[in-house]
Amino acid sequence: MDKVVIVMEKISAGEIKQLKGEIVIPGQLVAEGAYRAGRWVYRDGDRYYATKLGLKEIRNIKGKNTINIIPLSGKYDPKEGDLVIGIVMDLGPTTWLFDINGPNPAPLHITETPWKVDFGATGRYFKVGDVAALKILYKDDTSHVQVTMKGPGLKKLHGGVITTIAPSKIPRVIGRKGSMIAMIKSLSKCQIIVGQNGRIWISGDMEKIRAVEEVLKYIENHSHFSGLTAEVAERLGGGAADVERARETSSRR
Amino acid sequence: MGTDNQEIVLLDEKGRRLDGRLPGELRPIKIMAGVLHRADGSAYVEWGKNKVLAAVYGPREVHPRHLQNPQRAIVQCRYNMAAFSVQDRKRPGPDRRSIEISKVLSEALESVVLVERFPRTTIDVYLEVLQADAGTRCAALTAASVALADAGIPMRDLIPACAVGKVGGKVVLDLFKEEDNLGEADMPIAIIPRTGELVLLQMDGKMTPEEVKEGLKMAYDACKTIYELQKKALMEKYMVRTEELLDKETLQSAVERTEIPSEKTELLEEGAPEEAEAPEEEAPLGEEAEEVAEETAEEEVPETELLEMGEEFMEG
Q1: CA gap A62, A70 in Å, rounded
Q2: Can you name the CATH fold of A83-157?
């Protein structure tokens, strides 16, 4: 193990694989002085501490240095406007109860669908275990969440495979301006819907689905390193041109 | 309790204890994070002969419903000793002792977890004592806070815990089985290292106020050591991954770049050919680092949080 740690230090100092940032631990001092406390950071006087296990990131927002912690693990915390993939848990006369991988189940009301559903006829549209792409409509102070199926791209999903990865790794799967997911889609020729709740729906050729699943697992396990896009292109069997394009797009500002 | 048994000398004339430790010495401690894959977070602690496994689930829905709090999350701890954890078989299931320990540990953890973040939910912590040799509640609490951090639950700090006691008329740190049974007192404590607040303090036996003060000082110092071990365990979980990541070629070119001959020979012991060419593919990764920074920039900082946490401070 000592050997490995030595190697890592050498490498992070060099240019091969770089950690995205310093790993911090709850309660660790992340900054002192003139800063703003961002996500998962708390302040005591002019000292700033991390509240989660994650990577430290200092960014300039509107001329102010903001400290954020990018979590390395954790459950899905619903946010208004998130696209999620839900699984039906229960039916009511006017609602379906969806498991959205969050702390509490989320109801979908019949008026929040593109269909005209009669009272008590919810069973005709969704059965327990059915899957849908949904959006978080709102979340109140006591974390009651409601979802909607009205909107572009929101629909009941038929067939396909659902893979679950850590929700904290989803931004990495999507990539900057969707670069990573666009590349995975084009190389695998699969239909993919990425939910912010860590569920990813993949439909297409079974072999290709397996390959995509493997790549997603790889991203999940190596999200705290840089240089993933090119690696993923290679793993999906993209030719040299694809790999090169992945690099170019990622290096473009 | 008491020292009626005159044949056992708990502290020899040189001040050494039965197991050869000095009064202020801890037992060897090993902490590992993320040992279980089905749980949201986990940790394993070996503390002398103690072996404790911790698993964390949550935040998740509370069952039964009436326990849920609309303002905040609850932390539910379950401390359990395995039937084979002690010399004579322990009757399985919760007993008076383990119910008490579960309660005090829940309360200690609740004081560091940001419970207001997750209203109406529960954070479940399961603590299994696989082998016991006194001081299991401290080992369990140490494991629990590492497992919580591993589960990505927001906390103010980690909680290290340690026991002090009185043995053979002297204050000693981290009692083991025989000292616990035959000594005069045992006092487990847990602290928040950043502020020095006490989150757990219990005592069994008798100590003078001076001895308590001395013991607390000892335990505080020990907790700082344990805190470092907890931090190291969490860091290591993400460091080991590099091993899988680095296939041989990458490793080789990395070594070539650093150009430290001693390292080179050590890592290339299998006789891989050393080629001077620097693989082109590695070059653009430096640029990709910027992409990563951009990518994460998409995550928004909630405006309310910013306002309350330092707007005026920034202007000044």
Answers
A1: 20
A2: OB fold (Dihydrolipoamide Acetyltransferase, E2P) (2.40.50)
